[in-house]
UniProtKB/TrEMBL annotation:
Taxonomic classification: Bacteria, Pseudomonadati, Pseudomonadota, Gammaproteobacteria, Enterobacterales
Key words, A-Z: ATP-binding, Coiled coil, Nucleotide-binding
Organism of derivation: Citrobacter telavivensis
Signal peptide from the UniProt entry: none
Coiled-coil intervals, chain numbering: 64-91
Protein name: Bacteriocin ABC transporter ATP-binding protein
Domain LcnD-like long helical bundle residues, every copy: 4-83
Protein's UniProt keywords contain ATP-binding: yes
Example of a GO MF term: ATP binding
rRNA-binding among keywords: no
Lineage top rank: taxon: Bacteria
Amino acid sequence: QTQGTAEEPFLSQINQSIAGLESSIASLKIQQAGIGSVATYDNSLATKIEVLRTQFLQTASQQQLTVENQLTELKVQLDQATQRLENNTLTSPSKGIVHLNSEFEGKNRIPTGTEIAQIFPVITDT
């Protein structure tokens, strides 16, 4: 893993915390605005529309941040899965019969670059 990839989940958690705090601040501002308007209660249609618009924008913004954070997390998981796939792919430069090294049979983890098998040429092809 590169250093940037290792930091991404941590940064994602920080971004989620920031988004949560921003959402809380926005909610408190709406509550504060509601408290301040008790004395001068405005029941006009324009005010109701503005309150609904503000609430909708707050909800949409929060949902967008959530989706963006989920997307970031999924990209990190995809990068990690791609890296694991690259590390688990065996390739051969030639055709032949595979003879496994019995030392590694049943092992789940083998160091990268370890010779785990040999390929013997097919006798009928030579």
